[in-house]
Amino acid sequence: MTTQLPAALLHELLDEAAVHWPDRPAVTCDDRTITYLELAGASRRVAYWLAELGLGRGHRLLVSAKASTTVPVLVYAASRLGVAFSLLHEQVQGEQLEHVLNDSEPMLIVSDSPPNRATAGQRGVRAEDLATVTAHAFDTEGKDGPLPTAPLSVDPVCLIYTSGTTSLPKAVVSTHQQMLFAVRAIQHVLGYRPDDVVYTPLPLSFDYGLYQLFLGACGGAHVWLGRPAEVGPPLLTNLLRSHATVLPAVPAVADTLGRLLRRAGDRKLSLRMLTNTGAAMPQETLAVLRSNIPGLDVHLMFGLTECKRATIMPANGDLARPGSSGLALPGTEVFVVDADGGRLPAGEVGEIVVRGPNVMSGYWRHSELNAQRYPKAEGLFPELRTGDFGRLDEEGYLYVEGRRDDVYKQNGFRVSVIEVEAAARRLPAVGSAAVLAPNGSAPARLFVTVTDELSAPDVLQAMRQVIEEYKIPGTCHVLPELPLTGNGKTDRKALAALANEVDHVRG
Predict the structure, then answer these.
(1) Rounded CA separation 76/46 (Å)
(2) Pairing outcome for strands 126-129 and 445-450
(3) What count of Cα atoms within 13 Å lies in the side-chain half-sphere of residue 345?
(4) pTM
(5) 112-116 long-range contacts, CB within 8 A, separation 24+
(6) Does pLDDT of 108 surpass 50?
(7) pLDDT tens-place string over residues 402-415
(8) Spatial CB neighbours of 138, under 8 Å, sequence gap ≥ 6
(9) How distant, in Å, are the alpha carbons of 97, 214, 278, 485 from that of 91?
């Protein structure tokens, strides 16, 4: 009897799902739904077409397009050929797109944007319309056949471009085995099921959104692709329409859902689980969601593209350990170190380090940065210096304090951006809050949205009731809304630009 080996390549995860749940819906987007069997077949046809264009092992494929059922097809097709794919946010264009094209040197870009295809063509990169790929994908009479040599599990399969605070985007390289380990470890804790509908308003260019496809395949769940960082009234409508049971959210999405539910009255959602990563989730937001969605399980998580996921809180563990991001991913290790790299005991704050098979291969063509973030390898797995600071308790639960630049000195005392933001959100009239740490001669600044006529001085005065006075920023700005990135996180670059404009006017 032949024993079927578990998937070792990313597309084999899809092929397993096509065997176990052939008729289960795999992906829905814009009123089009495809099953796992249809997705697998479409990815084979597109892989054959890509091979005819000359793509093969070691090449790169860029995809610059809005979410659709065709984008997952391209992801799995690239995997079959040993081609490393990179999904770009639909807002990446102009100078940023030129940088990615120059940096990744792709063999092909697939885009639904004529200007982006023109930009690629000007640089000698072949460009194809997404509609052309769709035609090949869903033509069941289309060509299919043997493909070139299959990739190895240690080959790169994905480049995810991430932005720093000041630099141009850089790509994190992931292999098949790294991505599959992360998917299985996360699935071990979260447990997506064949009867789940995962509604994701996160862009597929964001690893948190992308991995919903793979977690869905791992558990046989139906992944419903919404619009990137959906923070308006359609969020509630689409959750009801899709009968969603799982919502991967960032704080802006969760906060929007809470506000919509307060106004919506008795609108029964099917949600059984909400997850969060990318930024700290306000406890006040979770309290609203739990009161409006009986039986909702919440999993708070901490991660970054370079290791996908570092910690996951057991269901509703935040109630017993407020502020914690949970335990290390199964099969991995999380610890904190001092400035010299020495491990710190429980309770002491230091830089968070992740070690295990979830740590990705490093940055594409950034040897100096790799030396900083991956300073040493211990045994088989490298250590990733995350650049985030935090502490572990005696039982190994992680408490994140913020990025290196988010922990600063004020009046001689150590202050955390996360702590100040959380305090501001505890004020009844404050809807959302963000803090910019001091930069050069600029002091710490607080930005808030409010639900009544509260002025900036009123906010600073009220802050004295929720946090020590020496931690309160000297400056506050009341905004109609906080600017968000395409991933739904607070756009700190935009806040910094706004602060500079205010200084310029005052000057």
Answers:
(1) 9
(2) unpaired
(3) 0
(4) 0.85
(5) 112/64, 112/65, 112/66, 113/64, 113/65, 116/64
(6) yes
(7) 776 677 767 556 67
(8) 38, 42
(9) 9, 24, 19, 10
